[in-house]
């Protein structure tokens, strides 16, 4: 993989060495083995919690949060270094619902009381969050959501359904968009509320993916009572909150480092002596696709480095268009990596490895160990061009930006 060398100041070089030493000590072989078996965009609940606690105890769980809210407040360059080193080590990908999405929303729109209550619990992982945005008829067209929150005195009474709710089976809190008014255009009348998952009237039902993984769920709300104090921001002004959150979801963090981590996994498959997978490197069509993929990742990395330089100068860089470009190109690159992974393992791609990966049976691994995860990863990554705003939505945003509509 071609890499861009970043010229580091002595302070940043010392920070990089500190991160490497930390990972060498705390990212144990057992954690590494578990992380390599993860196939989803996020590590599973138990592994996520354990790695979250390791970073929390180091004070590094929220690299970009201000120190006044308990974050590490790394510089833009330090954030990138941290992401690069974690990706190079192969650390678990932590769910973004708390640190990346809900936390920044509460920092920006929450009251001081809400900040004092929620932010420390997000940092410590006492609160494990899920996101209630999509509904059966409202995914990419999020403004059409129907889940209602009718105000009765000092409470909202919530009725409706959310779907594709990642890690709802692990979460003890949910942030969600609800319709609090039927008046005006679709974007009006939406509010952003938070509530515990053990509130009476909430039912979580699993959705098992075609890979055999239980990652997402449907969540039902039947006369669920939520204090009005759990409203974040203004009533009926939740669309602005939602856009702010989605901007972080689509463009937050370092896409290139995550892509490199996934590409490293692919290269480990190709380097596996057992199974003869390295023969793929002798096939010109496969090598060409691999080279084109590396070029795409390099282009994403170049874009991120440019953004880091701008951030270091105090310039804002993450607008709707840039977030959409990052989401679109990252989605496509990840799917390409997963496709090459399936191609690499050849006939072993026909085996159902779900029971060996996710339990539910006593089936042993079929073939070499490196053949265990590529198909499940491929199937999981099909969702990447849908969640967080589908690729079609991202292209529409870019078209409107280019045409200044």
Structure characterization notes:
With 405 residues, the protein is of the alpha+beta class. It is 47% helix and 13% strand. It contains 13 helices and eight strands. It has helices spanning 10-26, 29-36, 45-58, 76-89, 97-109, 112-124, 238-251, 255-270, 284-312, 320-344, 354-358, 374-381, 391-403, and strands at residues 129-132, 148-152, 155-162, 173-179, 190-196, 202-208, 214-227, 231-232. The longest helix is centred in the last third of the chain and has 29 residues, at 284-312.
Unreliable spans are none
CATH architecture of the largest domain: Up-down Bundle
- Which series of helices and strands comes N to C? HHHHHHEEEEEEEEHHHHHHH
Roughly how much helix do the residues carry, as a percent range?
Answer: 40-55%
Approximately what portion of the residues adopt beta-strand conformation?
5-15%
What composes the largest sheet?
Answer: 4 strands, mixed
CATH superfamily of the largest domain: Butyryl-CoA Dehydrogenase, subunit A, domain 3
CATH topology of the largest domain: Butyryl-CoA Dehydrogenase, subunit A, domain 3
Count of separate structural domains: 3
